[in-house]
Amino acid sequence: MTETQDTQVGDPVGDLVWRALTASVAVGALLLALPLVVPTIASAMAGETIATRTRFWVTYRWHWLINSIAITLVAALLVIEVLFLIQWATPRIGDDRDLLITLRELGVVASPWLVGNVLAGILLLPVGWSVHRRRIAERVRARRISDVIRQTRIESARKRAADVTAARRIGVRLHPTTGKIDATGRDVLTAPHRAPGGLNAFAFVSRTTITTVAERFRDHRQVRDWITSDGTLVVLPDHSSAVRAMVIAESGSGKTVLIDSVVLCALEYGWPVFVLDAKGDPADAHHLAHLAAARGATTQVGGVWNMFNGTPDQVTAKLMRLMPPPDGANQYYLDEIRGVLQAVQHDTAIRSVDELKDRLTRPAQFVRDQFDLQMVNATVDRNGTTAGARVLQSLLVALRPLERLIDETGWSYANPGADLTVIPLSPVDDAQARLGDLLLLDLRGYLAARLAAGDKSPVLVIVDEFPQLVTAISDPGDTAGSLFETARSAGVGLLLATQSPAGLSNDEVRRRRALTSGAALIFGRTKDPEEVVQYAGTVMQMESSGAATGDELRSARAQHTFVIPPQDVREAADGAFWLVQGGAIAAFRALPLSTPPTPGVSGAADPDPISDELIEPKEEAVEMRERAGS
User: Fold this and answer.
1) How does residue 615 score in pLDDT terms, banded at 50, 70 and 90?
2) Position 620 confidence tier, pLDDT thresholds 50, 70, 90
3) pTM score, two decimals?
4) How far is CA 393 from CA 352, 361, 396, 398, in A?
5) Cβ contact 193:233 at 8 Å
6) Which residue from 26, 59, 361, 378 has the highest number of Cβ atoms inside 10 Å of its Cβ?
7) How confident is the model over 167-191, as pLDDT tens digits?
8) Is residue 625 very low, low, confident or very high in pLDDT (cuts 50, 70, 90)?
């Protein structure tokens, strides 16, 4: 009976204990759940529409720190509350008071904690925002956004946010709506920037700010030669044969800054650099010269060019380039000019205009045999004019506009005379446009000479605003394709810049030959991006008529879409570019240039105005460059 009585007496006590524990656990669970109410409601109210805003995807380096602090504070608060509940419930476990009284007392004691936990949810808003972003990012990756238009807008917003974040990391501030560079910070990262392995970087890779687990584990094709091993910086390859690129971007998109950065990177490697600036603005050429001189490089702006360099065949090709294109009616005269030039250059090439006159008027000592001499001295009209005299007359007429631009003492690709040679070519001057065409033809001959001699020494040639050289009487587009195809074997770096693919040549085949030559394609903002983005490739995407998941998927079709949407290229911010090569793509932001001291001010790189003469760098700049190289 004693055991039975004890059991009967113990049942009420055990029931009270159980009730007290249940109440405590229920209140504890409520306390733990309340901090999640505010971020959950905020995320639900924001929905997916907020994800179409660029600012939603912009992240900061310290956002993880804020999230960590918020989670730590809320966790500390919850731990304190749990300990308080345990302390409060322990002495009341054996109390036989009514459960309602116990709950009433617990409610009075815990009500301040409940209110505090709701307010603590405000601290978790950044955490909830991060979770909400990752959930939407996963839905975007799986294309589970029900609205196709919203899906596209979210993807565009993510790309713009990546560009904004990349700009901020290098110290550049962008206008939130126009994408224009507003200002640069105090600790701005400038080009050329020393990258690991002794490489020189000119851009910072733009990465998606929010990545899902599936995206982290997916293999990504990385652009070779141009990107560092950690995938953060765009560098100029340290071997010039790998520098073959075409830059396509409209005016004002940051193309000139990008090209100047590439030039400075090449000079840091110790390469001779030639820049043919078809914009023809001397101010741009002088600015680049000051940038180079400030870093210890000798610079020559303008100056005359030695047209009569190279082999006899190369000199003949350049002189024939001055003649009108063959149209059938003039083919006989063109053949005559070519034959005469070949005849008088049997042993050695013509080296000046004066020598051209001498050989065509007195050809006897320069020809191979009597037959060539008869060809040059053959009478071609009733006035007794010889073939040599007629050829000379045609060539002098074509050479006259170039007289101020050429001289046998001038520079050539084989003998530059300076670390950096900048040739401004005015697009409104037909003579200078013709000179640019001849310079490209001469470059092709220079590549052939290097291949024959086995010369692999590094050289970089850049042509800015290449379409300005394409005129009604000259079309260097035929030269561009062959240059890209042979530059790598000759160890020469080549970079052509244009505002649109249409300006590469008047001929569609020539344009396509240049674009598909294997050179890297770098493009920024342009109004006609379709022809450009097609070289970045397409991706297979599923488009559905209903919801994109589960049983609600009614009908769908898979179709190829551009990897880089054309509209993203049209809306690209200043300094934002894409690099495409070998099936790999990298979006990047060009680094701003470091500004050298103003000429004439103490510490300037060159206190004298820039002229067509050689500019010697300051000794301090040379020493600084040598230290950087070591």
Assistant:
1) very low
2) very low
3) 0.79
4) 16, 11, 5, 9
5) yes
6) 59
7) 888 888 887 777 777 777 777 888 8
8) very low
Torsions phi, psi of 538, nearest 5? -125, 170
**Is the domain of 317 the same as that of 278?**
no
In the 8-state DSSP scheme, what is residue 143? T
What the block records as the tokens of 536 is 């970045």
Residue at which a domain ends, from 105, 135, 165: 135
Model pLDDT, residue 545: 55
Cis peptide before 312 (omega within 30 of 0): no
**H or E segment and range at residue 113:** helix 99-120
Q: Tell me whether residue 178 is exposed, middle or buried, using C-beta atoms within 10 angstroms of its C-beta: 0 to 12, 13 to 18, 19 or more.
A: exposed
Give the Å distances, CA to CA, from 622 to 24, 293, 298, 552, 597.
77, 9, 10, 70, 15
Amino acid at 86: I
**Do 530 and 512 contact (CB within 8 A), yes or no?**
no
Q: Using the 8-state DSSP alphabet, how is residue 609 labeled?
A: P
CA distance 25 to 32: 10
Residue 33, pLDDT above cutoff 80? no
Q: How far apart are CA 339 and CA 541, in angstroms?
A: 60
Q: How big is the CA angle at 409 (ends 278 and 339), to the nearest 5 degrees?
A: 80
Q: Which domain holds residue 387?
A: 312-402
Per-residue burial over 38-72, b if 16 or more Cβ lie within 10 Å, else e, is: bbbebbeebebebbbebebbbbeeeeeeebeebee
533 is written with which tokens?
């983005």
Instruction: Write out the two tokens for 409.
Output: 């003492």
| Same domain as 490, residue 341 | no
Environment class of 391 (CB within 10 Å of its CB; exposed 0-12, middle 13-18, buried 19+): buried
Query: Residue 363 — very low, low, confident or very high, per pLDDT cuts 50/70/90?
Result: very high
CA 195 to chain centre: 16
HEC letters along 378-441? CECCCCCCEHHHHHHHHHHHHHHHHCCCECCCCECCCCCCCCEEEEECCCCCHHHHHHHHHHHH
374, 402, 430: which is the final residue of a domain? 402
Crossing angle (nearest 10°) for helices 370-377 and 387-399: 60
606 and 478 in one domain?
Answer: yes
Stretch 124-137: mean pLDDT: 87
Contact of 273 with 266, CB cutoff 8 Å: yes
User: What's the rounded Cα separation, in Å, for the pair 468 and 427?
Assistant: 5
- The count of structural domains within the chain is 3
Inter-CA distances, 435 with 306, 464, 474, Å: 11, 14, 10
CATH of the domain at 614: 3.40.50.300
What pLDDT, in 10s, does the model give residues 185-227?
777 888 899 998 889 999 999 988 877 666 666 666 788 889 9
Orientation angle between helical segments 508-515 and 477-490, nearest 10 degrees: 20
What is d(CA 198, CA 178) in angstroms, rounded to the nearest whole number?
36
- List the one residue out of 471, 134, 455, 118 whose CA is nearest residue 278: 471
